[in-house]
Specification:
The protein is an alpha/beta fold and 579 residues long. The protein has helices at 12-22, 26-34, 40-47, 63-75, 88-103, 124-133, 149-158, 197-212, 220-239, 246-261, 265-273, 284-300, 304-312, 316-350, 352-355, 372-383, 410-416, 440-454, 459-462, 477-482, 539-547; strands at 5-7, 79-84, 107-111, 138-142, 161-165, 179-181, 360-364, 387-392, 397-403, 423-426, 430-436, 464-466, 468-469, 498-505, 510-512, 518-525, 528-534, 551-562, 565-577. It has a five-stranded parallel β-sheet, sandwiched between helices. A five-stranded mixed β-sheet has the order 7-8-9-11-10, sandwiched between helices. Strands 14-16-17-19-18 form a five-stranded mixed beta barrel.
């Protein structure tokens, strides 16, 4: 049931000193110390991160050459086609560049491959088609292309000018494109290598705006565009689950503010269907669970062009139609996802030999290739091991999507098993692949063998990291509100987690929600009583009731607003009997 918990030791003197220096609550000071920011100046810089903290785009490898080529194409009135990936990162990055080039008076369009028919990244058929339609066009990739060696060679052979902008893992051979833009190119000294595709596209747009301004500063009109484009970059950054540190945290922090004020009909319609339009302040979770899945649903179910159209249209009526359609696609995606997850669990339970492997490779002819990535995450969490799900197709091939667990280097593992694959790409935490259906079993065994030799997770890899042990009385409305200064929260900057020991049940635990799938419980400690919830953990109600004594709980504190009243609520992460 409970994982091993680890938390930073309580140092009252250090907490009191930092709390006084920063004029913040002891609770916030504890979290800062637990996360390595015991120095007041470093902590102050983190809490007060500014938009000006973003790195100059000129530092990004390839961006100056790319911006020069794009401005040249604008001046020559050539068509510029943005070739974007079909996920949220690619869709938002494509939209950023499209808006930028439209405002610059360019002849710009976009091409988004169909996930099911064309697969990920650049493909040769699309390059031939785009060249035949207009051999003089400039092709700019977004969030894809760094592994497209053959496709870049074809573009060069045809004489099609290609700029690749990407952030995914570099292979042994780089594509021979006119320009490569990537934060981790060999020899790169870019200060932050974890930008997502939309972040890279934002930097390219910024460099273009500089060139069309005075060389260093954009014109007032384009500066306004860049400030709004941070909002789209924030959506891609959160949805792509890149670390919310350094530049990424700044992008999301200010992008969330920008989203609220953006006049884009598409974003307004999207916020409306996600029931976020009336929310005073958006959080990263609103992107992760509200905006992102609706955009992603379009790509997962083969309609990614509609998502780009939504984010680029100026027609409010069309935006409303598209947002409603994406909302429906998202509902459909949830239904498909639940069915695949159920089948995946059954497959593991029925194959005891697979349970002995450190990795899982599951394949099925009925699975939808656009949804298996989400389900792979759930399977990895369910079975505590890296998981790859493969959708088998009628042509004898399979398309797979994998998610890591406990620091497993997924890209390296696929690279070691490349002999069984037709193609693969991604990074250490998430990756995609294609293989012959007949190679699934050999691939499964090869991946398990590699993991047995190279994957040795420690307790530290799987333990639940907790920022501090606290009393429930410390988790008050003022202190919890102040914790938001640490945000936005996401990958590598999680919502603060705390532990409270020897708490009691103030009343019997209950289940709640549709299908009674969630837990609701009231927790008491030394006269303080707070409500706790645990989503998808209805089974905890009976387990907690059986303990008959005090409990230790780990939780994230949230503020629940109901009928105009704010109150602190605990989102339970784990628990165990106090004994």
């Amino acid at each position: 049931m409970a994982r091993k918990w680890s938390f930073h030791p309580h140092d009252a003197t250090m907490i009191r000193r930092l709390s006084g220096q920063l004029q913040v609550s002891p609770l916030l000071a504890q979290v800062l110390i637990a996360r390595g920011m015991s120095d007041a100046e470093a902590a102050k810089a983190f809490l007060n991160a500014k938009l000006s903290d973003l790195n100059d785009p000129a530092l990004l490898p390839g961006v100056e050459a790319a911006a020069d080529a794009i401005v040249r194409a604008l001046q020559q009135k050539r068509r510029i086609t943005i070739y974007g990936d079909y996920d949220v990162d690619g869709v938002t990055g494509t939209s950023i560049l499209w808006h930028c080039l439209q405002l610059c008076g360019g002849r710009v369009d976009y091409y988004i491959p169909c996930r099911m028919e064309e697969g990920y990244g650049l493909n040769q058929a699309a390059i031939r088609q785009l060249h035949e339609e207009d051999p003089q066009r400039l092709l700019v990739s977004v969030d894809c292309g760094i592994a497209s060696v053959r496709e870049a060679a074809l573009a060069k052979e045809l004489g099609l000018e290609l700029i690749i902008t990407d952030h995914h893992t570099l292979g042994e051979q780089l594509p021979d494109a006119a320009v490569l833009v990537h934060p981790r190119l060999p020899g790169s000294e870019y200060p932050f290598g974890e930008l997502c595709g939309a972040g890279v596209a934002f930097k390219v747009a910024w460099a273009i705006c500089q060139r069309l301004g005075d060389g260093k500063k954009a014109s007032p009109r384009m500066r306004d565009f860049l400030q709004s484009a941070v909002g789209l970059a924030a959506v891609g950054t959160v949805a792509d689950v890149v670390p919310l540190q350094a530049e990424n945290r700044v992008i999301v922090r200010y992008g969330l503010q920008s989203l609220r004020g953006m006049g884009s009909p598409g974003l307004k319609a999207l916020l409306q269907v996600a029931k976020l339009a009336d929310k005073e302040a958006l959080r990263a979770d609103d992107i992760a669970f509200g905006i992102g899945p609706r955009i992603n649903a379009a790509g997962r179910l083969g309609q990614a062009r509609l998502a780009v159209e939504l984010l680029t249209t100026e027609d409010p009526e069309r935006a409303g139609q598209l947002a409603a359609w994406l909302d429906q696609l998202n509902d459909n995606r949830k239904t498909v996802e639940r069915r695949i997850l159920r089948q995946a669990k059954d497959m593991v339970e029925e194959n005891s030999a697979w349970q002995q492997h450190k990795t899982l490779v599951l394949a099925h002819h009925e699975w939808h290739p656009g949804v298996i990535g989400i389900v792979a995450s759930r399977v990895a969490e369910e079975f505590d091991k890296p998981a790859i799900l493969i959708a088998l197709k009628d042509d004898g091939t399979g398309t797979g999507s994998g998610r890591s667990f406990a620091g497993f280097q997924l890209y390296d593992a696929l690279d070691a098993c490349r002999g069984h694959l037709l193609q693969f790409g991604g990074h250490k935490a998430a990756a995609g692949l294609k293989l012959q259906a007949g190679n699934v079993e050999a691939f499964r065994e090869s991946l398990a063998a590699w993991a047995a030799e190279h994957f040795h997770p420690t307790a530290e890899d799987t333990q639940l990291r907790i920022d501090a042990e606290v009393l429930l009385s410390e988790v008050n409305l003022r202190a919890v509100t102040e914790l938001d200064r640490l945000g936005p929260f996401g990958a590598a900057n999680p919502t603060p987690r705390f532990m409270a020991s020897h708490v009691e049940l103030a009343e019997p635990p209950k289940t709640m929600g549709e299908g009674a799938r969630h837990l609701s419980v009231r927790i008491r400690q030394q006269g303080t009583v707070l409500r706790g919830v645990a989503f998808g953990r209805a089974e905890w109600a009976e387990e907690m009731a059986k303990v008959g004594g005090p409990l230790h709980i780990s939780f994230q504190p949230n503020i629940n607003t109901f009928q105009g009243m704010n109150r602190v609520e605990l989102q339970l992460i784990d628990w165990k009997p106090a004994g």
